[in-house]
Amino acid sequence: QEILEKYHDLFTVQWEGVIGNICASSQAEWEQLLTSCSAFLFYGMERFMSHVLLNWLVAMNIPKCRLVILLDLVRSQQSYQRIANSDLHKSCLHIALERPTETAMLLSLTGVGSIVATQWYTNLEENAERLETLFENLLSFGRTTGQTIHVLQK
């Protein structure tokens, strides 16, 4: 919340989304957000693809979305229990398609121009630092996505 408030004035007028952990977003909300945005940020627990339906995503066409930033793969005891229960009902292939590289490929096939994603499990503090660096470089300094990724890699 602090990071969003800090960079609020640098966002476009059309900034909208879902913040908080009161309730899970519906598939209709995910679809509305992804199809109407030019950039999409997911900052959440576990795998991004565990929050959306695979069949629904692969059928989408979202070429207006030029950038997807996935700051996911954060695990808590509660999120691990949720994902473990969810994974019981999925095939091994389905779970494999939720991994970071496969998620990036699926998003690319739907028309997304660039994908920035974590590759391994992390913690909330590290993802907050990544978000701060992303916003600072993309919004404050006006760096390109590629330049910003180079800063993150250092």
Helix-strand topology string: HHEHEHHHEHH
Mean pLDDT: 88
Structural class: alpha/beta
Q: Indicate the proportion of strand residues.
A: 5-15%
Q: Rounded to an integer, what's the Rg over CA atoms? A: 15 Å
Give unreliable regions as ranges: none
What labels describe this entry?
3-stranded parallel β-sheet; 154 residues; CFA46 protein; CFAP46
Description:
Helix 7 (124-140) runs antiparallel to helix 8 (145-153). The protein has a domain at 26-124. It contains eight helices and three strands; from the N terminus they run H-H-E-H-E-H-H-H-E-H-H. It is globular. Helix 3 links the parallel strand 1 and strand 2 (67-74). By secondary structure, it is of the alpha/beta class. Helices cover 47% and strands 12% of the residues.
Short description:
Helix content is 47%, strand content 12%.
Topology (elements, then pairings):
Layout: H1 2-6, H2 27-36, E1 39-45, H3 54-58, E2 67-74, H4 77-87, H5 92-96, H6 100-109, E3 114-117, H7 124-140, H8 145-153
Parallel strand pairs: 1-2, 2-3
Helix pairs in contact: 7-8
InterPro entries: CFAP46 (IPR039586)
Protein name: CFA46 protein
Organism: Quiscalus mexicanus
